Queue: 4 jobs
Job 1
Amino acid sequence: MERIVIGVDGSAASRSALAWVAERCGRHPVEVDVIHVSRHAGSGPDDPLVVAEQILRDATPGQVVRVHRVDGPVAQTLGEESADADLLVIGVDPGHPVRAALGGWLPVRVIGRTRAPLCIVPA
């Protein structure tokens, strides 16, 4: 069974990546680990993990979906969490210069820290 790790942050790019993963889950059995890298425990309907889990469970009933909140540097943490995954998926918003600058070109940093194949889904 394929294991996909997806990094989420609640952004439009993150939702696009979730949609891409949901479509892939519809084709064959997949285990999905949803990772939100944050120092703050979230709760409520706007929590990126709550939203992501609901999207995937609604779109892919019966698939294995696990959610994790992890503390640490984003690129390094995603690399570590996906070390034994078949695929790491992240969303990016290259058309949003402030998010791109604040993220420090996250995709480039993730590429350097992951062993798993990386799928970068645009917003």
Job 2
Amino acid sequence: MSAMKIMIVGGDNIKMITFHLCEKGFCIVKHISGRKNNHKCAEIPVNIDIVIIFIDYVNHKLSEHIKKEAKKLGIKTVYSKRSWSNVESVLI
């Protein structure tokens, strides 16, 4: 079985979360911090299995945009705080 591909929205420093996700067999394909103006119209790659939105690091407009795009593509969206324990609980 190949690794599940994840897109992460929000957060600047996600090194430890990325490390833990890779240990669990997930592959981070794309990360956008949400800080740049052009992020509000970010596109989701078609090969993504799950989108994780860090609710404490993303504005409402970007969150709604990503949610709508993911729904169109049939991609699961999960919401989490930027802590490993929270991420792990929403994925498992």
Job 3
Amino acid sequence: DINECLLRNGHGGCQDKCVNTIGGYTCSCENLPNTKLAKDGHSCEPIELCSTNNGGCSNTCHDTIGNWI
């Protein structure tokens, strides 16, 4: 088994966390707050924080990358 996660400073083919498996690897976004794994299985994308309960904001909620204002 080749450890693909050793590439790119331990990220392998992942934007964030890479976990080596037999014959491949899996990615996660657990180290990037308020993000989730994108459909491509490698990239992380922001969670739409404003979509539920207006993000807890009393005024207009605006999603930014991994945060809301």
Job 4
Amino acid sequence: METSYLISINVLEFVTVIINYCAALHIVQTSHTTDDPSPVLLNVTDNTSALNWTLHSCKTSKIGRMLGRFFCSLLINAPLGINSEWISTTENEIADDISRLKKE
């Protein structure tokens, strides 16, 4: 397979951020989960590119820039904000456990 067909892990991690944001936004919009008029989702990631793309923008990946524009369109006038925080891979035990699940 040619490398031009591969999707960067950074892009996949950023897609995960966007999907998590959409899920949280749905909850905020459809149920009474908080009295806070401006709730903020804390996104924790062990991928520094996904972290930076969430807080700033992607400058190198065409797909990352396109996802960034899509993500911004979700954020405009949304009742939910987002903030990101980095966690080291060694401390990210839950994600490691999920990624290592095997069929029994």
